[in-house]
Structures are given as structure tokens and as C-alpha cells.
Write a structure and sequence with these properties.
Pfam families: MazE_antitoxin. By secondary structure, the chain is an alpha+beta fold. The protein is 33% helix and 11% strand.
Amino acid sequence: MTLRLKVGRKGYLILPKAIREAVGIEEGDEVLVEVGDGIILRPVKGRVDADKLRDALRRHLENLKEIEGRKEPKPGELARSYLEEEFENEGIY
């Protein structure tokens, strides 16, 4: 699974709530940053349960579908959108 996130001021990244909950990351927790051909973030505590993550993201998608007035994007329409903008615009974060 790959997500596209936008780096904010001072280099901040926002991990969507569904991902934080699925992998058990809470405020103040530490993550490991592995640098190689790319960058990999891993929670210091425990392993990521891929099934739990898929379920959390599936529930998140179901919640998004219930938003009144929501419309489906056309192919390519979101190419320049970033996931955290979705949450910021909805006042979730």
C-alpha cells in the first residue's frame, strides 16, 4: 500500500488517523526512519498488522462515502491532491 503525503512547514508529515490507529501510533510515540533507496517509517513498538490496517482504511473509505454532498472524482482529478488536505478541509485534524 502506498500513500501520497505532502510535507508541511518545518518538514512535518501528517499520518492519517486511520493509519495511526491501525498501527497503534499515538501522540508522543517514536517511529524509526530507515533511509536507503527511499524512506521507510516504522513504529518502534510492535509490528504493523496489515489486515488491521486494511480494515481501518476500508472503514475510513466507508465513512467518506457517507459524507453528504460528496461527489466521486473524475479520473486524474485528484492527481495534485494530498491526503492530509482532505482531513484539514473537513476539520478532522
